[in-house]
User: Fold these one by one.
Assistant:
Number 1:
Amino acid sequence: MVGSRNKPTLKILLLPSMMAVSLMLSACQKEAASSENDTSQGAEAGEMTDLAVSEGLVSSMSPTSDESEPVELTAQDKLTTTLSHHRWTLVNAVDANEQPMAEFANINSQITLAFNQYQGQDTLSYSVGCNTISAGYQLKGHTLTTEEGMSTKMSCGELDLAENALNTLMHGSSEFKIDQGDHPVLTQFTDDDVTLVWNGRLTPQAKYNSKGETVFWAINSETVSCEAGRPEQCLQVKPITYNDQGIKAHEGQWRVFVGEIDGYQHDSKHEEVLRLQRYPLNSDELSETSEPTKDDTADEKYAYILDAVIESAVVE
């Protein structure tokens, strides 16, 4: 009897404890869920904040306009461009007493000067018509400083004296001025008080705004009428092809060349092979009377510049 009365009492005592434990577990679960939600929302908020900051940085780093402003060349850049875009030919040379230099008498037209860039370095080259001497140079304002040059080693005979004199004048520092124009004039004052005057001629690359294509032509000693019944005479040419070893591999057929080769003077006493640079002409440079053609080798589409005479034979 006593046992039967104690059992209900035990149940009554256990119920509050179980309810308390249940409530505590429920509270813990809610707190954990709340904590997970807060953590998740915080992470999302952090990600959104980082994204907004990142976008703000990208926005601040991005240019405000797609249009790029043109770069204005400095006076030094313009001077360097003028020098490199022309080939210079000596027209006058006088010593400290303003007397013509005997070393250059009668050969002015074959004394040349060129400014270039080679592997990122500023270089110049000059020649009296025999060896070509190349040297690095620096340009500060209108002061030109030329380093010691390197030269090919051909014997120049009567030109040796002129070559040595020019090499001495070009080495070291000199002052110069340029008179701009379609045909600019470069006046150079050397350390030896020698004055050299050079005429500039626009290079083919600068004139035609393209790199030339090398072609080889044989030139017949005899010219022919350009057109039947007309007195104008034209060259006869045929293409030559060389292999990688420099051996003649193919010769084309003779044809009439209606045009000019800049720098070439035809000699009826010689048959020659020329190395030429060929430059495509743009539409503005083509003659208005030129007929449309599908022939890519049409003479009127190109400018031809003499590079070198590589063969010359006397006609018997």
Note: The radius of gyration is 42 Å.
Number 2:
Amino acid sequence: MARVEADVFETFVPKGGFVCRKGEPVDNWIGVISGMVKMNNFSASGKAMTFIGVPPGSWFGEGSLLKNEIRKYDTMALRDTRVARLPGATFHWLLETSLPFTRFLLMQLNERLGQFIGMVENERLLDLNTRVARCLASMFNSHLYPGVETLVQLSQEEIGLLSGSSRQRANQALQVLEKKGLLRLDYGGIRVLDLEGLRRYEADDAI
């Protein structure tokens, strides 16, 4: 713990700024202290695709560190964000010397794999209302996102980015889910009222 506290450092990234860029060497493990970031890529034509949003209390980038490869995606701040950066050398030292850290990392990778499998399923099989429901439900993973509370501080535009839709269409989906009693649109975010209901929501329930 003393070495981690000595080696980790903090940076500030303004809204719209890059936390890290595609093609850069991966030299640290990144945790979100406050704010929100998104992982995304751009096609040759300039079309953006968002993979996931990363809320406070979460870490990412361990896969690229383990494989010692350049970063394959951009990470941008959805709002003003503070991030912690643990140098790669300290990350690998922990991996070699700390069984609890190794166990944590194994669970992190397993949960991340499940998350991405779910995303592929959602994208290919589900309608947009259901994708928005699953997008919100996926934020409540106690291992990947330990800091998330019932009030998810995401705007409708941000929900659109994470679910692959426009802000207007995401708003329509959120209104459907609100009428179902699964969530409430509050000032400053979205309050989840029925997490299991969001996880079970199916396209046939859409109105």
Note: The mean pLDDT is 86.
